[in-house]
Amino acid sequence: MRKTSIAASLALLTVLSVSVSSCMSNRKKGMMKPPFGSPKDVAQANDLWSRISGYRTWQSPAGMSGFQKGRSPHGKYLKYYLNSIAARDPLAPGAIVVKENYMGKSDSMLGPVTAMEKIPGYDPADGDWFWVKFNPRGEVMKNPMGMSLAGKVAKGMKKGCIACHANAGGGDFLFVNDE
Ligand code: HEC
After folding, report:
1. What is the pLDDT of residues 31-75, one digit of tens each?
2. Do 110 and 137 touch, CB atoms closer than 8 A?
3. Which of the residues in the chain have pLDDT under 50?
4. Smaller CB count within 10 Å for the chain: N or C?
């Protein structure tokens, strides 16, 4: 009788500890999975690159065609482009804002190309923007940890696209429409 109850409680303990640890590892996995840079995010970014391939023919924001002076962390000089939706309203569904980052005031000094696309329902808490940073050849760039900079980039973190763009006027995560 005593033996069986010890065996039974041991069995119960094992079941409990296994379920607790699997629960914890699931939770850990959930916490570890970053909100950006997955193969799906990269595929979405590649699709975006193909849709923005003609961006140099797009309009620029009023009074902002050609080189503009940039602030940290983007290029020293910037060029802005708006798709036809963003040209009417940069916050409308489907709006795409492309920004070329130049290391100097010369077309030969093009660095990364950053883009934001407004996708209703994609990320309501942070303005519904899809974020991506391409190199000049249209390949998705990575951060020093090897994570691809596509998707809800650095969501929930202290630094990065979303955290910094949260400082844009009007709470819309967009600087270009601020005065
Ligand atoms: C530390 C702050 C900061 C971080 C981090 C940052 N940005 Fe920006 N971003 C700015 C500022 C400021 C501007 C306005 C242009 C300028 O003055 O450089 C801007 C402009 C832009 C624009 C043009 C639209 C707009 O808001 O005016 C795009 C597109 C953009 N950033 C994309 C990104 C992406 C993608 C990332 C992450 C990979 C990123 N940014 C990270 C500060 C930041």
Report:
1. 568 899 999 999 999 999 999 999 999 999 999 999 999 988 898
2. no
3. 1, 14-28
4. C
- Cβ-based burial of 33 (10 A; exposed 0-12, middle 13-18, buried ≥19): exposed
Q: Does domain 35-171 have CATH number 1.10.1740?
A: no
What are the sequence ranges of the domains in the chain?
A: 1-33, 35-171
Q: Are 114 and 132 in contact (CB under 8 A)?
A: yes
User: What pLDDT, on a 0 to 100 scale, did the predictor assign at position 9?
Assistant: 59
Q: Tally the C-alpha atoms within 13 A of residue 41's C-alpha that lie toward its C-beta.
A: 24
Nearest protein Cα to ligand 1, atom 3 = 164
Name residue, tokens 């973190």.
157
CB 33 less than 6 A from any atom of ligand 1? no
Give the Å distances, CA to CA, from 37 to 9, 33, 154, 166. Answer: 45, 10, 9, 20
